[in-house]
Structure formats: structure tokens, C-alpha cells
Structure prediction request, 107 residues.
Amino acid sequence: MRNSPGFQAKIPSVLRVYAKLKRQAEVFIRLVAKRASKTNSWEMATPQERIDYLRRTVWPTISKDVPAEFVQSDCMLKLYLRNWLGIEPTEEEQEALLAQAREACLR
Prediction:
């Protein structure tokens, strides 16, 4: 992102997004490192253990800007944290999220 034209041109909205993502990444890295130091292996944790841990520790911070009706969604959590979890949402989860989004937009 730092190599993007918007960042190089110091566009305020791009700089704000960059700063927000950087803070979120720092929080996530710190929490994962803390977890790894306690268990000695993030890699040995099962996918469900990773999801449960991230839902308790990281998700409340990261999901502040997520609409309230989607905060409890496993699909949304997986979408936001897929790079770190290594887990993609299933087709059924994605379809359920889309249906929920459609319903929320129609209200």
C-alpha cells in the first residue's frame, strides 16, 4: 500500500486507511505473538482454536467498523482474517452472509 500512487501523493483518505490497517496489523501481530509464546505454537492450534481465540481477543478491536448485524458472522471473521487464519469461508457461509446483507439493505 505504501507504494500506491495515493500514498505517495499523500492523499489524506489513503493515509488514514493505511494508518488504520497498520494499527490493526500491529494489534493482531502482538496478540498472535502473545498467544504463540503461551502455547509455543500457533501452527499447532486447530482452525477452530484459532477462530475462537481471535474472536475473543482481536475481533472486538477489528470489528468496530463492521455493521452490528455482521459482527457475529463466522464468514465475516474469516473474510477479515483469512490471511492470518489460512481459512476461507465456505460457500454456504458466503451465501448466508450475502442473504443477511441483502436483508439489511432492504430494511
Observations:
- The radius of gyration is 16 Å.
- Residues 5-106 form one domain.
- The chain has one domain: 5-106.
